[in-house]
Specification:
This protein has 9 helices and 34 strands. It is mainly beta. The chain has a 34-stranded mixed beta sheet that branches. The protein is rod-shaped and about 145 Å long. It starts with a strand and ends in a 31-residue tail after the last strand. The C terminus is likely disordered.
């Protein structure tokens, strides 16, 4: 302590042994200074009236000076118990407070603010503490929602810390930020020894062991904000390689909504613990369960491994307000983190899609999804995806598919077992406007090719619409038109040896690039035309070749001479070998998938036969085969 003072000293000296000496000092201080290594305080440029009384202690109505490099006003009052309270009001740079308290979590704050403080000093160490309050106006906080603020807004901040003693004496500090972050911290040797930071309004308890714990509840948390908060606050960088700093032991957070790069998870419970390679986040929510590795080497990709992911696609028929509320709206592909993803069980709109893996490799305004691998109940999928945002968004997807039991996948998707096949291969090159999850049939362009070998098509359950899309089951419609009975044929499905198709898609309308061809023991078919995937309509020209011996009643009607049926049948039985003859029927299929209409008006008529179907030529339908390479 030092400085210039104009002092008046008054002494009351007792003249008897029973009296007590009383000392009263009144002074006007100028250019004074006070330094307390114990408290870590350095007052300078002190000026004001100070009074000391041996009975009443130290008092001052007002002193002006400098503290922490800013102007401060102080008032001093001593009570009858001998406790002295120094009230302070001034401004401070928040980074100075961080260094003074050695509290790295305040790295999330920047700026200068007004404060009020009370320093209480008394004999001994039991009541030596500093209380500081501020509305933090002028301070910016970088933290998750509920804790963050700009410089112009206010948020209450209260801090109480023990002062005095040597650096080897443990000191306790508590603070509350906006009733959303509470902390209890024990320091020793100028560093944090143990601490607990609690999100929400719960009161934290000092941990039983050395280290740092973070826990609590927030209504909504964004992963990017939480990750930045943990790193900027120094919590994720507090490692055992820093012997003076406590090691982060665990982060446990519960939230109603957790935004993971645009994917909002509901009712998430997450736990963050140290890992040899960085930090491991273990989480469980309504939509997923799994773990995410945040590597210590930020040049390495994150590792996301999910036991389950349930994705519900946004309903585009919702109101504009609901669509605007989609949390994925406005997400830039280049903002996504670099990540390797594995999903053991994927569900989209409650349909199981098996297991998947992929690599997210973001670029500026661009995202490459590489090495897409899927196993859909034995159906293998490989592919790549490219998501671009250059003014407008565009997604391009290429997929190769290979299966030896595609019926198993169809059954899992709720189409029953509509298809049995020994081998199925497919290729798709597709694109649509918007992000990958904005997939809409009306925006779909591209090409789809597939071929299948040695199988059966079954009209079971709700699979009929799926098969009618290709006009395959309209052999039944044909039989009804001609009042024939193909019951035996459809009891066991339509068997085929080969099935090949190639479609070009434009704005959700698929047109055959080459005829859709199916060949088999019961019938051969060739289809050309289009499918409207949006309106769910079909418009196709279909050619069906049926063997004579397998369809004697049909042949007789087509020939206009029923008695021929008996003769052909008898001849076939006498010879013993099937007649290698086919009858070809051509018709047009048009209308809704659920009940398309077959139009036979284009069939040729024989002169003089009126409305009766005329004779048609017998011919073999040439089978087409498309080679696909996966």
């Amino acid at each position: 302590m030092g400085g210039s003072t104009n002092t008046l000293l008054q002494l009351a000296i007792p003249v008897t042994s029973a009296g007590k000496l009383n000392v009263r000092v009144n002074g006007d201080l100028a250019r004074g200074h006070f330094v307390s290594p114990e408290l870590g305080l350095n007052f300078s440029q002190l000026a004001g009236h100070v009074q000391y009384d041996s009975r009443g202690g130290l008092n001052s109505p007002g002193i002006k000076g400098q503290l922490f490099g800013k102007s401060v006003q102080a008032a001093i009052k001593t009570d009858q118990a001998g406790a002295t309270r120094i009230g302070l009001e001034g401004a401070v740079d928040i980074d100075v407070i961080r260094k003074w308290l050695n509290l790295d979590i305040l790295k999330i704050a920047s700026g200068t603010t007004q404060y009020k403080a009370a320093l209480e000093l008394c004999p001994g160490l039991t009541c030596r503490q500093l209380t500081l309050t501020s509305d933090l106006k002028g301070v910016e906080l970088s933290a998750p929602d509920g804790l963050s603020k700009d410089k112009n807004s206010v948020m209450p901040f209260d801090l109480v810390t023990e002062v005095g003693g040597n650096t080897d004496t443990p000191r306790l500090l508590r603070f509350n930020l906006g009733k959303q972050l509470n902390a209890v911290v024990q320091t020793q040797f100028g560093a944090i020894r143990r601490a607990r930071f609690t999100l929400g309004d719960a009161s934290p308890r000092l941990p039983d062991f050395d280290g740092i714990w973070v826990d609590g509840y927030l209504p909504r948390v964004e992963f990017a904000q939480l990750n930045a908060f943990l790193r900027q606050s120094g919590l994720l960088t507090a490692t055992d390689q820093n012997p003076k700093g406590a090691v982060l032991q665990e982060v446990t957070v519960n939230t109603a909504e957790f935004d993971l790069g645009g994917l909002v998870l509901n009712n998430l419970s997450a736990r963050v613990i140290p890992d040899n390679l960085g930090w491991m986040i273990q989480g469980k929510a309504d939509q997923l369960a799994g773990r995410l590795l945040l590597p210590a080497d930020t040049q390495q990709p994150m590792q996301l491994k999910l036991d389950q992911l349930v994705w519900k696609k946004t309903d585009k028929t919702a109101t504009e307000t609901e669509v605007e509320a989609d949390p994925l709206t406005g997400l830039n592909p280049g903002d996504l983190p670099e990540m390797d993803v594995e999903i053991a069980a994927l569900f989209i709109n409650e349909k199981p899609l098996g297991s998947w893996s992929l690599l997210l490799r973001p670029q500026p305004n661009h995202l490459n999804v590489e090495q897409i691998r899927g196993d859909m109940f034995g159906t293998q999928v490989k592919g790549e995806l490219d998501w671009q945002q250059n003014g407008t968004q565009l997604t391009e997807l290429s997929l190769n598919l290979k299966s030896e039991n595609f019926g198993k996948a169809l059954a899992a998707w709720g189409y029953a077992k509509a298809l049995e096949t020994e081998k199925l291969k497919g290729y798709a090159q597709l694109s649509w406007s918007g992000a990958p999850w904005d997939f809409e049939l009306a925006e779909l362009d591209g090409q789809v090719d597939f071929n299948a070998r040695n199988g059966r098509l079954l009209d079971v359950g709700n699979s009929g619409n799926l098969l009618r899309v290709f006009g395959i089951l309209n052999l039944q419609s044909l039989s009804r038109r001609l009042r024939l009975d193909f019951t035996d044929l459809f009891k066991t499905g339509v068997a085929f040896d080969a099935m090949d198709a190639s479609y070009e898609i434009e704005h959700g309308v698929a047109r055959t690039r080459s005829p859709f061809v199916m060949t088999g023991p019961s019938a051969n078919m060739a289809l050309t035309g289009q499918l409207d995937l949006v309106q769910e309509t079909v418009d196709k020209e279909i050619e069906v070749a049926l063997p004579v011996t397998g369809n004697i009643p049909l042949v007789s009607v087509l020939l206009g001479a029923p008695q021929v049926a008996g003769a052909v049948f008898l001849l076939d039985k006498l010879i013993g070998d099937p007649l290698e003859k086919f009858t070809t029927v051509r018709y047009r299929l048009k209308g809704n998938w659920s009940n398309p209409e077959a139009d036979f008006s284009a069939l040729p008529k024989e002169s003089g036969q009126g409305d009766r179907l005329g004779p048609v030529s017998y011919t073999h339908l040439r089978a087409h085969e498309t080679s696909l390479h996966l």
